Amino acid sequence: MEGNLLIKNGQVVNSTGTFRGDVLTRGEKIVAVGQDLPATDVQQVIDASDLLVFPGVIDPHTHIQLDTGIYQTADDWAIGTRVAAAGGVTTVIDFATQFPGQTVKQAVRNRHDEVGGKTLVDYGLHCMLTDIPPKDTELREWMKTLLSLGVPAIKLYTTYRPNYYQDDSSLLRAFRAAATTGVLTMMHAENDAIVSAETARLVTAGKTSLAYHAAARPGLAEAEAVHRLLFLAQTAKASLYVVHCSTNEAVELIADARHQGQSAIAETCPQYLFLDDALYAGDHPERVIMQPPLRSRANVLRQQELLRRRFIHSIGTDHCEYTLAQKTMTPDFTKTPGGIPGLETSLPLLYTFAVGENGIPLPRLVQLMSTNPARIFGLYPQKGIVRPGSDADLVLYEPNGKHTITAAKLHGVSGYTPYEGITVQGKVRTTISRGRIVYENDVFPISGGGQFVPGTAFPADSLPA
Question: pLDDT of 380-402, one tens digit each?
Fold first, then answer.
């Protein structure tokens, strides 16, 4: 549904605080926020007296319509952004993979072509570098090209040999080029030698069932890689964003580096805050095959504590919609595609944690899931805040009532959820993207209409809280 909207008497939540009031949108923008706003030239008035009004969630880490060269997810951009809308996500930031022989410009162009105007909500892009050029001058030009295309971040890997892996020399070169251009470096941090050795040991012992997935990728591999990456990034004076931190050691290393003045950011995902490695010994280990894997219950509780203590700065989902058939096609963990769906469940899970005992304040929830990602990836204040002049990206969240997460009620194509049976507090009632109601009470009134939102260079002197 499109047209000017007036949202009345909602509890508006920004990262700076909350207040009860109205939000008026005209076209794609918020034009007024206050009390008793007039309904002049308004096509629809929404009574939000019993609702929370959040800025739209920004998921900075998704893999919609992913093709790894080995596996391909079953969704496309229409499906993926529909799932996002049902979860209150109004902007997804995904990846343009630079396949061997491609320039970064070709990689970004190809990803836009794949999107093909199908998105229901807005999208941004990072660039996944896999084929780093030998000349530093060319590498710097690539970084400048990405910024000119509105792609302010690159992603590199310390594992997945040979497709994505980069050695320390290549990482250092990339860090230096990023530092001189203002590009933010995102890192998947797992020590490849440790992972490869542990996997080989398990295979030799005949321990290849899905129950052994976590053992093949121990927390030590992540902690060592984060320690090394922080050192390399500091040497290069580059800003570092570590994706999907699964261990408390990784988060604490980043916190220590920040305390020393380093530009470093920790992202985690709902799975590392709510699920633990006991699930690998359960009836459905396929639902939790992901990289990095789930950790111990003690680690999960520590991650929650670190979140409360503001050691974590961004929440992504690492959303990846392989189907249940793909996840169960083999009993061998070395051949099972890694990745789980999470876009639709992220906000209800985090909201439930926020309002629970010893949780986090609602403004902090907004900071983690909207404002900080907007600031980090150059979308603020266009996104990430409810204020005049910003995009009319809003989530109306119904805080009352409890709901059980079940795959049968979700809107993706995976056929499963790792959060099956978990009870959450409240639900997304309405999602508004650029002033358009894209989801309401389990209905998608329109299709398409999402846009690419270009990001800008990361402000290294303004780290998110």
Answer: 999 999 999 999 999 999 999 99
